[in-house]
Design brief:
With 161 residues, the chain is an alpha+beta fold. It has one domain: Alpha-Beta Plaits (2-Layer Sandwich). It has 4 helices and 5 strands. A 5-stranded antiparallel sheet has the order 2-3-1-4-5. A hairpin with a 4-residue loop joins β2 and β3. α2 runs antiparallel to α4. It is elongated.
Length: 161
């Protein structure tokens, strides 16, 4: 199998932002997920609203939305996108125990919204940790992954399994 040409590497090996000028505008959508695993006691405190930093789930949702909108400022080679939808859900799950986080991002653009969906999940998870660390110092962020993407040349792709 012939190796693919790296799109973010210039002729001299330098990092570069890809020129997307000639790509068509299409509706792009991406979904991502992840989780914050914690003690059952910490989850109970989040659900009860008994933490000193305030309401964790709502704050994490807002942080994830803000992060998606600022992805191009955080990830060096990402193009800024005019997002038309950012949805972040933070769902308490006693089976973990912890918080499951899911994001969905949509835009009409020349490049996909995968990084925005992943960034939303990552920052929402970090916000949960920050706000709940007084209840559990050893929380873990797990399984941040792209679930599906739509639009552009590759069409619709879903994570196997």
């Amino acid at each position: 199998m012939k190796a693919k040409k790296l799109t973010h590497v210039g002729p001299a090996g330098e990092a570069r932002m890809v020129d997307i000028s000639d790509k068509p505008v299409t509706v792009r959508e991406a979904r991502a997920r992840g989780a914050v695993r914690m003690s059952a006691e910490a989850l109970d405190a989040i659900v009860a609203g008994n933490l000193p930093k305030g309401e964790v789930v709502t704050t994490a949702r807002i942080a994830g939305i803000q992060a998606a909108k600022r992805t191009s400022e955080l990830i060096p080679m990402c193009h800024p996108l005019l997002l038309t939808l950012v949805d972040v859900d933070c769902l308490p799950d006693p089976r973990l125990p912890g918080i499951r986080i899911e994001s969905r991002v949509r835009c009409e653009g020349k490049t996909g919204a995968e990084m925005e969906a992943l960034t939303a999940v990552a920052v929402a998870a970090l916000t949960v940790v920050d706000m709940a660390k007084s209840a559990d110092h050893w929380m873990t962020i797990e399984g941040i992954e792209l679930v599906e993407k739509r639009g552009g040349k590759s069409g619709e792709l879903r994570r196997p399994g």
